[in-house]
Input
Amino acid sequence: LTDVTGVQTCALPISFPTFEQISGLVAKDQKSKAYQSIFLSLFLILLYIAFRFPNGFIFGLGGIIALAHDVAITLGAIAFFNEIGLVNVEIDLTVIAAILTLVGYSINDTIVVFDRLRENIKKFDKDLWDRFPKSRVSQEYNISLNQTLSRTVFTSLTTILVLIPIFVLNFGKGSALEGFSFSLIIGVIVGTYSSLMIATAFVLLNERKNRTN
Output
């Protein structure tokens, strides 16, 4: 284009074209890579716990079961509350980031409990184990849970106290922060009790069976 002064200019469109869809081939490739990443991360977590803790395969399996539980419950809560219209949250990149944050948060809580349990196993008197093998196993787990309970609960509460204002200020606005904060609130609550009542309970059941055989 040429203006009144004779200077040539270039007119650009009001907005640049955007693409909101990708081809099926690219989507299939990304989906495959996502599954591979998930299985690889779970395998590495299992491997790490197996080397760090006694009878580590059972400990690692308990941690992975707790992680699967946390993610499933959180995604289910998102789908349910979004369906009834209470929140406006969709599974997008922001929610996926929240789920990944939750996975790290949850496995950290679980490892804290497992670490205290490992320390208490070494402290118990061998005579008590010889006389009361089943009672000793239960005592080890009860003491470990009681010692880490306050730390786990207070850590979760302080996290939720930060997330609640973020969720309230963005509620109903369709903001990315609404989905992120809502996902983490549900995930932190679920992850707290799964570390105490699912991962540890799974290991306890197997440990009682193994030690008394």
Q: What stands out?
A: The helical segments are 24-52, 56-83, 93-123, 126-131, 133-170, 176-211. The chain has a mean pLDDT of 78.
